[in-house]
């Protein structure tokens, strides 16, 4: 039986170098909450406004007697190169101010951006922040949509 409160169709699991540092960043700065954790394994399931992610501290599993790791190649910072995870959010300005005041690494300052999606454009008010291991998180607030001018390609 699956507990629907603890799962969504996609939940990324991110390897981290220091679970305590990562938890401080995700909870204190970004506003995630711990749904559950396994401290002895360096693992936590986090949630923020319906978005979920898992953190798994590398090199923690040998302490529990397990040797289970899902790292397919060498892992060096920044982790997650080539990917940014977009998380829809409410009040992106307030979150951006908190992130900026924390001194976290802002990769893309807050902006309004329109993206074409077939015959409409959708807009985000967004920014990108790097977590302590270099994963990119794009927090975006929907600003609506508009029709595409057929004369503009």
Structure notes:
The chain has 153 residues and is mostly beta strands. The chain is 14% helix and 41% strand. It contains 2 helices and 8 strands; from the N terminus they run E-H-E-E-E-E-H-E-E-E. It has helices at residues 19-29, 92-102, and strands spanning 13-16, 33-38, 43-48, 51-57, 84-88, 106-117, 120-130, 136-147. A 4-stranded mixed beta sheet has the order 1-4-3-2, covered by helices on one side. Strand 2 (33-38) and strand 3 form a beta hairpin. The protein is elongated. The N and C termini lie far apart (50 Å). The model has no long low-confidence stretch (mean pLDDT 89).
What would you say about this model in short?
By secondary structure, the protein is mainly beta. It is built from two helices and eight strands.
Widest sheet, order of strands: 1-4-3-2
Mean pLDDT comes to 89
Would you identify the regions where 5 or more consecutive residues have pLDDT less than 50? none
Can you count the helices?
2
Distance between the termini: 50 Å
Q: Main beta sheet, described?
A: 4 strands, mixed
The level of helicity is 10-25%
Order of helices and strands: EHEEEEHEEE
Overall outline:
elongated
Radius of gyration, whole Å = 18 Å
Outline the secondary-structure elements:
Blueprint: E1 13-16, H1 19-29, E2 33-38, E3 43-48, E4 51-57, E5 84-88, H2 92-102, E6 106-117, E7 120-130, E8 136-147
Parallel strand pairs: 1-4, 5-8
Antiparallel strand pairs: 2-3, 3-4, 6-7, 7-8
Task: Provide tags for this entry.
single chain, 153 residues, mainly beta, four-stranded mixed sheet, 2 helices, 41% strand
